[in-house]
Design goal:
8 strands, alpha/beta, Rossmann fold
Length: 232
């Protein structure tokens, strides 16, 4: 049995893994779906003062209070920097760090992972959240259609500013953590260039899924097979 800790990306909560968890259960694996503070069912806690450190603590507390060890830590999208920071603080507990179409931190000691929010929306002065606009599906999720798209839009919560603006800084402890990768052909990044190393060396095995940025919704069976193949 493998334990998976699932950390969702922008606009999502633990609900995003709804199709994945039963498939992992059927194969004898255990999973914990994280909802970051201010997102999903914890949206009532949203505040402009919640920073990336809170998100890191959200995951660390799942690990601590469920007494998890030797688990696979999955980070989707921007949460690549969150899971990297968690692995940096608890490297002895993380079996594999699995980046799901995610930001991939480098093994450097300087701050990294601060994004430009204007890539996603035009912000007004003082705005500290970005809602999920339907146009995002045209950019990175064309395969999310009909009922799945309605479902995503109905449950999505605005992305908190610190999640995109605040970087993480990793120590030398991060260098020992094993990594694996899943890339999505329709997720907005040049996958062929990435796997050829044009965007930096990949530090572990990888799989490529023919899907948009949310394969947990559009390709759950294939995603689970790849997750297991890369980490067990």
């Amino acid at each position: 049995m493998t334990t998976f800790v699932l950390v969702p990306g922008a606009w999502l909560g633990g609900w995003a893994w709804k199709k994945i968890i039963p498939l992992l259960d059927e194969r004898g694996h255990e999973s914990y779906a994280v909802t970051l503070t201010g997102m999903g069912e914890r949206v009532h806690l949203a505040s402009k003062d919640i920073g990336i450190e809170t998100a890191i603590q959200d995951v660390l507390n799942i690990v601590k209070y469920n007494e998890l060890d030797e688990f696979v830590l999955v980070g989707h999208s921007f949460a690549g920097k969150i899971v990297a920071a968690v692995a940096d603080r608890a490297p002895e507990k993380v079996r594999t760090l699995l980046y799901l179409d995610a930001f991939r931190p480098q093994k450097i000691r300087t701050p990294q992972g601060s994004f430009d929010p204007t890539e996603f929306a035009t912000l007004s002065p003082g705005q500290w959240t970005i809602p999920l606009a339907e146009q995002m599906f045209q950019y990175v999720g064309k395969d999310v259609e009909d009922e799945d798209r309605k479902w995503m839009l109905s449950l999505s919560t605005p992305w908190l500013r610190p999640h995109w603006s605040e970087p993480v800084t990793l120590s030398e402890k991060f260098d020992s953590v094993k990594s694996a990768y899943i890339f999505c052909t329709g997720g907005g990044d040049p996958v062929e260039e990435i796997v050829k190393g044009k965007w930096g060396k990949l530090e572990g095995p990888y799989k490529v899924i023919e899907s948009g940025h949310w394969p947990m919704i559009t390709k759950p069976d294939e995603l689970v097979e790849d997750m297991i193949a890369l980490t067990t």
